[in-house]
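Re: the 770-residue chain
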Amino acid sequence: MSSSPKDKAKTPEGFSNLKTKTPPKNSVGMPAIKAAVGHAVKYMNPADALKISLKLNQKGGFDCPGCAWPDPDDARSFLGEYCENGIKAMAEEAQNKTIGAEFFANHSVDELAGWSDFEIGKSGRLSEPLFLASGATHYQPISWDDAFKKVGTHLNALDSPNDAVFYTSGRTTNEAAFLYQLFVREFGTSNLPDCSNMCHEASGSALSETLGIGKGSVTLDDLYKAELVIVMGQNPATNHPRMLTALEKCKKNGGKIMAINPLPEAGLVKFTNPQNPYKLLTGGTKITDVFVPITINGDVAFIKALLIKLLEKETIDGGVVDEGFIKEFTHGYEAFVSDLKTYNFEDCLQASGVSKEIFDEAFHLILNNNKIIICWAMGLTQHQNAVDNIRELVNLLLLKGSIGKEGAGTCPVRGHSNVQGDRTVGIWESAPQAFLDKIEAKYGFKPSPKHGYSVIDAIKAMYEKKAKVFFGMGGNFISAVPDTLYAAQALANCNLTVHVSTKLNRSHLVTGKEALILPCLGRSEKDYQKTGIQVQSVENSMGIVSSTKGVLEPCSKKIISEVAVVCGMAHATLKNRTKINWLQYKDDYNLVRHDIQEVVDGFDDYNSKLKQPSGFYLPNGARYRNFKTKTGKANFSLNRLPKWKLKDGELVMMTIRSHDQFNTTIYGLNDRYRGIYNERRIIFMNRDDMATRGFKEQQVVNLKSEFNGVVREAHNFKVIGYEIPKNCCATYFPETNVLVPLDSFAHTAKTPASKSVIIRVEAITPERLS
């Protein structure tokens, strides 16, 4: 009997051999070198590993498929312009095993669903297109022509183009993403949800409103020259390890670092640069000058407390705020000051969970510096009040005049390698009309002006059977989204689910009535087309567009590029009614870039600029105090404190990554920087909260959340005492995504509130254990 979609979506609830150690106070160094080499040797061909190490993130090489941290404009390290997790990403993509017909004949979908996410991901590279027929138990090979016909048949059978959902992962290149959204718009819908909806959508919304651009305003050089860098809701040592090198340079130049986070992360304590023999011998660089252990979602309260004290100091001594900047470049200052006066400092400080002693240290760093950069990630963006979090940070920077000058500004740190580029070239369910008008002028069809589904909307539409085809361009949708069991049923309600992927993941096992897996080239592989090996492009966290060109031979002759997938699907679906010669694009990607420069602002002379070794910067008005907002100026905003309160026995939970993880990809079962080995079913709790509940170390518990009357459960987690504020706890995703309500999301942006889930922790009785 076939397992239900919900059963297939769940991560296995059994335990491994958990071991714990005291979390280290230092990061990277020799342990990181050892871990990186270990993954390369274990999972890659040695010759391939060497090729990759020499070309990864190098000029003329290929872009890491992991995070979106920028590469230096000038010289790059000959020892390797990558990090430990970059090598883990490559060991995942370029692993020396392939899987195809024989593998899937031997393993049913139900069997594979019982494997851990780690086992699924390490099963091997996908080597040929696969089809799961209605009622079938095993995937079987299918030709590319038949796969494209299958997609086209399903799409053309829909009552409306709006009955299809076209998802995009952040690893898709600019060329593939542009063609993908172009096909979707010519097909007739705007249903283009993407991974931005789940991470930095709140950043884009808040920054567009306040500064006129939904991206950060700083460069790497600004980080080196900042007087103060504030790192909020972010764990660079795991998620963006090369960022630590930039923070080290900032420190060397006399800058200070403030870390604001519920957990003390090893990478922000001390960093041992693995490319500096002296640092390896002497023990590294202290990174954080002030660590602020904030309560989960206490960010607006903390920033508001800082703002109150800064204005008080301005009233007494003057010279605290940048009056000239505020008068010339901002709007709404008086309303902002008036609103701030309605708040009480002590109330804000208490809501933040920060002690007065630590607050004073943080306050004096901000008071005495004016070249300030604030960096943040999903610790700020995945709350119901996420947009308020970002707007309040902008208020602080505007008050200090720390926008649009050297060494100062906003720095949202993007997670996936080209998630920002995808949005730039049109992957957006609510694209501006000016962009749609350019598409109409260029191609002769009128794109739908109606806003499409975001991720949250798409899941609801599939669950309600309003959307009947799901197409995923990369990613691991079921493991990335909130409310796992609801989302699993949503996918199962579809007539067809399609995933373009390099390797197997859990989303391939939670299917519609029919399913396709379309294997594509990895970033590291050569892309052979009629006009030769193709170059593609990506955009990093700081708005630099650069080339990426693979160096390895494709792992199979039956895999094709994402560009070829889109062109084949478009040709098979639109047939004679298209106004576009789709097949020409897959032969020569220069033609794609020529079109992009006509449709997307900032890409003038795209093909020529892409030949520049370091790439080129896209326009960024906020960087030069040219604020393209409705007021024409940078806008102060009014933001409220979060209103939620915990009842007796409740905790607020945030989902986090382990160190052996990138997004939903599980590289291993260790979390070295938090002292966890061989296990992922963990809940980190304050030891006082453990004592109140009578919990012992490694006790097995169940977790429950309740939202709008719906109870959600996650079973079998081991309690680990940790340095985390009282009434707070942390768990790994995707294991606890099942607890995140689909209808709990950020206002305006709809990012899921995965970092502020109210739960109860319940001991498992002996009867239930047996």
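The chain is about 35% helix and 15% strand.
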